[in-house]
């Protein structure tokens, strides 16, 4: 999965795919302990996809402006 594909997704879609990726990664790790995997490189690819999803989620979270009180500037005092 490419970063551009992930960036085009909504946050909910990213969270759903992240859950699926983690599940698949777990299953492959468990399967690796008992037998040889047909494609061991898939584990590495999954870890990288998980990292991409998490990174883009953090980017999207930091993009959103936080709702806070309006900034009040102190008034200049006249002498």
Give a verbal description of the structure:
With 79 residues, the chain is mostly helical. It has a single domain, classed as Helix Hairpins. The protein has three helices and no strands. The model has no long low-confidence stretch (mean pLDDT 87).
Quickly describe the structure.
The chain is built from three helices and no strands. By secondary structure, it is mostly helical. Helix 2 (11-34) runs antiparallel to helix 3.
Tags for this entry?
Helix Hairpins; mainly alpha; 3 helices
Number of helices: 3
> If classified by CATH, what would the architecture be?
Orthogonal Bundle
Q: What gross morphology would you assign?
A: elongated
Please identify the structural class as seen in this structure: mainly alpha
How many distinct beta strands? 0
- Average predicted confidence as pLDDT: 87
Q: Briefly, what CATH class?
A: Mainly Alpha
CATH topology: Helix Hairpins
Strand-residue fraction? under 5%
Low-pLDDT runs of 5+ residues are: none
Report the order of strands and helices: HHH
Question: What is the element layout, followed by pairings?
Answer:
Elements: H1 3-7, H2 11-34, H3 41-63
Helix pairs in contact: 2-3
């Amino acid at each position: 999965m490419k970063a551009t594909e992930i960036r085009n997704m909504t946050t909910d879609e990213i969270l759903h795919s992240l859950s699926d990726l983690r599940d698949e990664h777990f299953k492959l790790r468990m399967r690796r302990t008992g037998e040889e995997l047909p494609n061991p490189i898939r584990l590495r690819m999954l870890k990288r996809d998980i990292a991409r999803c998490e990174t883009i989620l953090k980017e999207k979270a930091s993009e959103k402006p936080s709702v806070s009180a309006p900034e009040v500037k102190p008034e200049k005092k006249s002498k």
